[in-house]
Amino acid sequence: MASATFTLFHYWQAMSSVDQILNSGILFQNLFSPLDGSSKVGTIVISNLKMGENENEDADQAPSEASREKSALRGSALYKTVNDAEKFSILDSVFKNIIYKVYKLPTANGKWLCVREQMAESTLSFHIPKQLIKLFIQEDTRRLQDLEELGELSAHWDTLRQNVTVHYQQMISSYHEVLMELSKFSGSSFKPSCSRGEKKLEFVPVNLHLQRMQIQNSSAKTDAIYDVVTIGAPAAHIRGFRNGGLRRQLYRFEGEKRNSAYQYIYYSPEDTTKAKEVITNIYKLQPRILSNSELLLTAARQHSSASLKDSLKTLSEITEQFVHTFEDQLLRSALLALHKARPSYINKKCSTLIPNPDTAEEQLENNERKSSKDSIPHHAEYDEEDWDRVWVNVGKSLNCIIAMVDRLLEESGNSPECEPNSSSADQSSSSACDNWYDGLYPLVITLKDCVSEVINRAKKAMVFVLLQDCGSNIPQALALHQRRDVVFSQALAGLVCGFVIKLQTCLHDHGFLLQLHTVGLLVQFEGLLSTYSEEIGMLEDMSVAITDLQKVSFKVVEAQTEESASADLCPVVTGIRDFYTVEVQLPSKLFETLPQEIKDGKLLHVHPVFFNIGINEQQTLAERFGDISLQEIINQENFKLLNKYFKSFQENLSADCLPRFQTQIDLKDLFQSLSENIQARKRKNVEILKLAASICRRLNGIRFTSCKSAKDRTSMSVTLEQCVILQEEHSLHPDYFVRALDCMRREGCRIENAQKNIKCRKYAFNAIQLMAFPKYYRPPDGTYGKADT
User: Which of the following is catalytic: 433, 570, 707, 743?
Assistant: First the structure.
């Protein structure tokens, strides 16, 4: 037989001789469109896995030594860029351009492992940033309106307000421009590493992909699946790192604010966060109070005892939550500060400081007479108890409504319920309905008025606090504001991608779902950035972006229609900068399988942790001549967060919720080992990354791996993690660990990732650089050599 023909979908053909296949072991063949003959549509890789053995050989049959040797070296069996509709139909709205590689590898017990490696782009790379930018614009526009509603201020404060307003208008304008540019990328799902410096794409994550390894062996009843989301370090590359990254810049800016407190009122970051939280609660709770007040009146009009009780219960809970929001000393001090910022207050104070010479003695005598009172001068002009009266009136109004409802129900006894639309309703029943409504209506109006008065005062006070968030350097403050928006947008896109795939994978895992709504979702980021030169700035940006993910909660909702279009199932982001909710939609059949708590809309909180170990030649310089304290601090801080999550899990759930692994290791032992390695301060201690990843998988968490572009160092880490899992959990033959590792790096999905990013099937390393890399993070010969991009 001189040649063989392989047909795919009856459209493309690739021809080669059998001798060529047998001699080469692996054949690559490009596939071209039959329409024009020039458009590349895919590639086929043919591997001689069994080298002449029966292809239908039972997987239980022990492979020969020669078969093991050649299959490990030539493990890549299939590559295609078409969707597997049967397995991924649910995820069509999130993932696309899926690449597959299949390996057949020997095990230590004489059997075979079938390993399918997959890599997919995510449509969320662009979808989430566009939603976020719209929310940024809405929030900043509303903030401008709030600043205007502060009313008349003295010249000093009015100048500050005008300056802040101008800069916010400029920021809103720039965000509109970015949004218009992103709208041109309709249907895009991938930002290559070479686009890091493009201004119009700065909100989009770099090289975001889902990396999945799916394993099947003869003894397993179901496939084992391991997912890692790979993403370029969330960083503001276009804004540069001359002054460091966010972590350093925010710390420096906070110190400058503190030093300029003589000119403005200094509020700590905690105070600023509290002010934003109060405003958020105002916008969330006021509409609910108003709508439930109307429901209460509707129940009274219908003379429905059951509806009246239910409406009153809900109204009481929301109103009590509303009142609790304003139990804070910050609000009292802010109301006083705003009062002092009014022109009238300044005028009164000035009149006492510049007395008339003719009456100087009289003024002095009066001042001495009132010395005890004037030691706190604002008491004469500001009534602190006035706020208490306004605030407490909300609770009193609610109590009046509760008392009226109790009286009406008691008087009603067993009287029939009124049906206003029924022609058989008698006059007495109608009169009873009128009595209920008339009795409650004025009390409900009073409650609404009291709520409005509280909101009017409280919102202005909190807006006044936020006005001073910029300190004396408004351009720098808003530049930091934008930088934080940029890196958060990148991180959130990756987080939502990871949550969607985790939810879909674990939809029938009741232990995971219980853990999800009880203690929240663990999200573990692995960083490979050095603490040298620009990368230390990237590390600072990334650490803040990951910390800010604590502000995110997920909510699973039912899709509107049974057969929703894939575009309709995309996650929806709502909220403001200090609290975001991501709604993930599920078709009705899948939604019904969820626990009741999740179906009822319980928010699912995120617990992000971040561990970083630099592995390249720049980290060598940092360890010998520079400073690695930032990496040490980040790892120590996040170990505490990880340990805190584990303790919360132990207090609320049992180990039955966790997945089962072949390697039985106590989580406490893993934590102990991780703690020891973090304290050891060993150079390039990649054991920290291995332990953190293992803990994350055993705690049902989502794994992320990042370097500068998620292309080269990330590829080394991901492939190493896959082979470690194969060896520890699926008995990969130890003699073929390195061979399998080299095979994945040479022929697997990650070399295709390099091709997608820089149009070259090589990792961006050189031989000198690799001498500084840990042993198992070095790619095989022939797979590297191009400069970093």
Answer: 707
